[in-house]
Amino acid sequence: MDGLSTAIIGLLLAVWLVVATVAIWYGLSLRRKAAKSLRQTARLGRLLETAPAVPVVVRGDGRIEASDRFSRLLGLGNTAQILADLSGDDQCGLLPDDYADLDGKIRETQRTGSSFTQALRIAGSDRRMLVIGGIADPVIYPNGAALLWFFDLTDNLREWEKVKHEAEDAKAAFAAISGLIEEAPMPMWHRGPDYRLNFVNRAYVKAVGAQNNVDAVEQGMELIEDSDGHSEMELAAAALQSGQVQERQVSSTVDGNRRQMRVFDIPLGAAGVGGLAVDIQDLSDAQRQYRRLADAQRDLLDMMSAGVAQFDADRTLSFANLPFQRLFALRDNWLADKPEFARLLDRMRENSKIPEVRDFPEWRSDKENWFRAANPNEENWLLPDGTHLRVLAQPMPGGGLLLIFEDRTEQAQLASARDTLLRVRTATFDNLFESVAVFAADGRLSIWNRRFADIWGLEEELLGRHPRLDELLPILANLLKKPAQISVIAEILRMTTANREQRKSRVSFADGRIFQISTVPLPDGNALFTMLDMTDSVEVEQALRQRNEALSEADAVKSKFLANMSYEFRTPLTSISGFADLLKAGIAGELNAQAMEYVEAIATSADRLSQQINTVLDYSQIQVGALPIAKEPVDVTALLTELVAEHAELAASRGVNVELDLSDAPGIVPGDARRLTQAIGHILDNALRYGREDGRVLIVTQNERAMLSIIISDDGPGMNDKDRSAVFDTYARRAKDSGDKGLGLPLARQLIESHGGNLELFSQLGEGTSVVMRLPRA
Description:
InterPro entries: HATPase_C_sf, HATPase_dom, His_kinase_dom, HisK_dim/P_dom, HisK_dim/P_sf, PAS-like_dom_sf, Sensor_HK_Regulatory, Sig_transdc_His_kin-like_C. Keywords: Kinase, Membrane, Phosphoprotein, Transferase, Transmembrane, Transmembrane helix, Two-component regulatory system. It holds the Pfam family HATPase_c. It catalyses: ATP + protein L-histidine = ADP + protein N-phospho-L-histidine. By secondary structure, the protein is of the alpha+beta class. The protein has seven domains: 1-45; 51-152, 2-Layer Sandwich (Beta-Lactamase), CATH 3.30.450; 184-279, PAS domain (Beta-Lactamase); 289-413, PAS domain (Beta-Lactamase); 434-532, PAS domain (Beta-Lactamase, 2-Layer Sandwich), CATH 3.30.450.20; 534-627, Helix Hairpins, CATH 1.10.287.130; 629-776, Heat Shock Protein 90 (2-Layer Sandwich), CATH 3.30.565. The strands form six sheets. Strands 2-1-5-4-3 form a five-stranded antiparallel beta sheet, with helices on both faces. Strands 7-6-10-9-8 form a five-stranded antiparallel beta sheet, sandwiched between helices. Strands 12-11-15-14-13 form a five-stranded antiparallel beta sheet. Strand 16 and strand 17 form a beta hairpin. Helix 18 runs antiparallel to helix 19, helix 19 packs across helix 24 and helix 20 crosses helix 22 (673-690).
């Protein structure tokens, strides 16, 4: 028993020891697990404290389980114990509307187990919360609790709103760009990665003549034909591979018209290739027109007298016309290199074609500022050779410069000459014997000379104000003999300026002076007023008129006396000639030789005297215009032949050889044959009588268009200047060797002129005399 008891006790002790050992081991194991759980719980707690979401459990009775972090998140002053604590005021907690919605959704979750999501707003701040709710684990919370996860989405919502706004802006911008592309006036398109069309705008559809965008894309209607053997798809692929925008200019048919287009292929990476076409036909036409206009303008500038040079923005010469080249002695090959502005000035200096300046670099730098000037610059250059140049420097909008050189040398000379002329005119006006004044169209005195002021007694102060005519008339009227005559001056000035008519009149001054006034319209619309002192001229005119009347009466008495005396001489001459003829006929018996010689001398002298009397009578009649002249055809050849025959005896008595040259057949002249015979006979008679004995007389005829010339020349002693000037003087008495002693030559001249011709005498002492008679031909 004792042994069994001891064994049992030992066994029990062994079992207890095993159990104690196991219990200790299990306790230690539980301790380790508890420590591990505590550590995990601490980590989970810390994780929950730092997690972006805060868990909250809402029990069925409204009590909540949440950390202090949740209360701080809502801005609550105390830890929330129940759900109603989440509804705050204006400074913290949830807004009333958001709380009411949250409370309803929580109850719905507790009742049905459904989930929900809701955005919450915190009162008094701009913070935003997102709550995701669902049913809690029924094992842990068997009575139906709701598990809520609160997320602080303030920053996320801001970023989301920003992204939302950006997306809306991008969407609006895309819509605007799409609308812009669709409504763009130029064709635009897009090609996908396969380089086929997948979008075209309305302008593209219109250009290719498609029904709509879809029709153009589906049919692959290309706007541009193949360029240089490459299709549009190949060109688009080349643009995408190069990664750079490709530009080309091609021709295309748009709306049935051939147009020049500038096409751009724009690589868009993986999105494909975009394209647009700009119609540059108008630009091409404008460029061609501009080139034609530029060529025409340059041709015009070459024909201008002014020198023109144009510089680009880089200050190189782009154009110079021919006058510029000639003006500055520049060669074409040198200008073809397009020299810079400064280099051109250097060459102009070498050619002595710039003004003389002291500091040329400074002067050149100053001229280079023309490119930067805001306004045109104008200068006058005086070159060393005396050339005056007007220089105009016009800055161009693109930064270039246009230079115009106008040669004003002639204008400067003309201006100098004009100034001299004005001074001469002023001096001339002031020293004229006439009074001169110029009145404008409005009657204002503009120019006057010293004589005008002296005649009218006008002060320089008054004239310096350029008074009007109506101001001067009362002053001028006081000097006239009849003051009312001043209206004549006013009227002729008005008629001259208004009707542009020249007028003349006379005015008498109170002091006895007489002036002739005249007005002449000037080209500028003014009137020239002149006054000439006619006092002495009028007195001389009256004296001459009286003397002329006396001379006229004396000439009439002389003509009457000559006519009466000629008629009185005819009676005894007729008796003398008659008795001489009877004696020659032997009525008084046979006469011896000497007596017959005396009778023949008496008859010859009577005939000669009868011719002289007839000449006097004819000359008297022709002087008063009473000599009748017939107009009948006259054969000049027969007339001259007959005259030579009639004067043959006289020629033979003096041993003169008469030669008649009719090689230039004279033909017929209209006139009086008897008077022409008389006139030519007087000339021939003088040549035979007063020429050299044993000499020669030549008669020649010449046809000169509508005139016939008869020339009678001798080789006699001729005449000196004094005798030649008096040969047609009817009252002169010349010596025997001076030619005609009577009225033969004056009468011959009058007879020739009465036939519409003229008579000229040429004679030199010792060289003979020639008389030329010209008569109009039939």
